[in-house]
Amino acid sequence: MYAPSLLDPAAESLKLSDFTGATEVAREARTLLGERFSSVTFMYVLMRAFEVEYTAACDAARWHEFHGGPRALSDADLEKLLAPWLDR
Hints:
Layout: H1 4-16, H2 22-33, H3 39-50, H4 54-60, H5 75-86
């Protein structure tokens, strides 16, 4: 796991960014975090930047671009899941 000091700047950047939805937030997080991007770091920045609840952040970590499988979330699923926190 990475120290918060390495992840907080990405969370702050996301918080201040303009975006059109959760998929765009996830892809921007991937860009900001670079090699540090993983399902765990994605959860962390979601919780820090948008105050996403822990269980929702855990569910978001199942986004299909992390890994596949029967429990993977599609882009549409991710949008629906995170809408309560990302609607501005």
